[in-house]
Amino acid sequence: MPSAPSMLVVLVSNLLTQSIGYFAVVGAIYAVVWRLGRERFRFSRIPAPQRVNFAQIRREMGHTLVTLLAGGFSAGAVIGLDAAGRARLDHGAVAPLVVLGWIVAGLAFNDLWFYSWHRLLHHPSLFRHVHAVHHRSIDVNPFTSYSFHAVEAVLLGSWIVPAVVWLPVPMMALGVLQVLGLFNNVMAHLGYEFLPRWILRVPLLRWTNTATFHSLHHTRSRGNFGLHSRLWDRLFGTEIPDYEEVFVRRGAEAGSTSGTVTL
To answer: Is residue 240 part of a domain?
Structure first.
């Protein structure tokens, strides 16, 4: 098992790598969509009762650093468990179809984990002390993606710990799941809806999460608790009823609100 100093080096290196990579990706998306594409994409803008300002972004960046630091808890737990032989991570070569199967299974497990904790975090006592940090952002943007209280960051990110303890997850699948998780989180907080309206007519695609789906969660502060899909919200009756109507209507108010955008 690695010594404490070597574990610390690994965790610090992981934190620096993740922080640089995260802010590079999110900063680039923000620049392209929110700055350079403000006019071009105005009809994809999701209406919100509040507009983003630089104070919000500074606050979000600060909480993001806390989230990335808290993420070291899960990373450290996985590294430690794997080194101690208590994780079932598969380090060998695995057939592509098997990796794909594990990716699908990981997404489904994470989806249920996130829904359960997210809904619990809306209990008044937990919301007030923990989840309210994330909900201070009403008009979401890419920098909102990881703007969490440290407790929430640990809870939502620790799904990987039981997964690697219970299941022989291939390392390649784990890496892909991390990338997909980042992509989905940024997409959900984009503030713009780029998915075509016709996905609501495709049986499988209509069940996927969208930027509109999660933006409604921030503007209404209730319902739409899912991460990757609408499945659990539909099953437990927590989906916001007019979601599909708002999804189709995106950008309809652009003519009256584009002039008030402060970024």
So the answer is: no
CA distances from 227 to 59, 114, 117, 118, 186 (A): 23, 6, 11, 9, 11
Cα-flanking dihedrals φ and ψ of residue 24, to 5°? Answer: -65, -45
Residue 156 gets which letter from DSSP?
H
pTM comes to 0.87
Handedness of CA 160, 164, 167, 169 (dihedral sign): positive
CB 223 within 8 A of CB 242: no
Residue 260 has pLDDT above 80, yes or no: no
Question: Tens digit of pLDDT for each residue in 118-132?
Answer: 999 999 999 999 999
| Alpha-carbon separation of residue 236 from 112, 137, 211, 230 (angstroms) | 12, 26, 21, 10
- Mean pLDDT lowest for which of 68-72, 191-195, 197-201? 68-72
Instruction: Please state the rounded mean pLDDT for residues 177-205.
Output: 94
Structural domain includes residue 27: yes
pLDDT at residue 87, rounded to an integer: 86
What's the Cα-to-Cα distance from 32 to each of 28, 179, 238, rounded to whole Å?
6, 20, 33
| Cα–Cα distance measured from residue 156 to residue 190, given in angstroms and rounded to the nearest whole number | 20
Number of independent structural domains in the chain:
1
Is 232 domain-assigned? Answer: no
Residue 107: alpha-carbon gap to chain centroid:
12
Q: Per-residue pLDDT tens for 64-104?
A: 999 998 877 777 788 788 888 888 888 888 899 999 999 99
Task: Print the domain residue range for 90.
Answer: 4-191
